[in-house]
Q: What sequence folds into this?
């Protein structure tokens, strides 16, 4: 019985994750160029056409340059700390979200407002 319940819960989790669709590079460029991106967690990111960005969090900020790749991945370079962080966007049941693939937030998902 416990094994069956574990299998059902595992299947439900995997199907929820599979429903999220990664955005293409073209979709990401359009999203980022449409104006400030406000996240449910409170952060706001501004990505400019010249390849520069400004990300404001509750207690900190980042600024520098960014690149959008054709596969939808994004790399930002924080010029103050010289750190590079990668992420992508997906579209799931809760809307569009940013998912970090490197850096301190690796694996975390942050939905847009």
A:
């Amino acid at each position: 019985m416990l094994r069956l319940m574990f299998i059902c819960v595992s299947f439900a989790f995997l199907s929820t994750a599979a429903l999220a669709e990664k955005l293409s590079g073209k979709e990401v460029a359009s999203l980022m160029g449409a104006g400030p991106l406000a996240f449910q967690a409170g952060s706001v990111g501004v990505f400019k056409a010249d390849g520069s960005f400004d990300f404001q969090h509750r207690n900190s900020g980042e600024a520098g340059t960014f690149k959008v790749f054709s596969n939808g991945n994004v790399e930002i370079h924080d010029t103050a700390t010289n750190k590079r962080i990668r992420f992508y966007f997906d579209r799931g049941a809760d809307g569009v979200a940013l998912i970090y693939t490197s850096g301190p937030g690796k694996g975390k998902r942050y939905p847009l407002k």
Remarks:
- The radius of gyration is 16 Å.
- Residues 1-16 have pLDDT under 50 and may be disordered.
- The longest strand covers residues 83-92.
- Strands lie at 21-22, 37-38, 44-47, 52-56, 61-68, 74-78, 83-92, 95-100, 109-111.
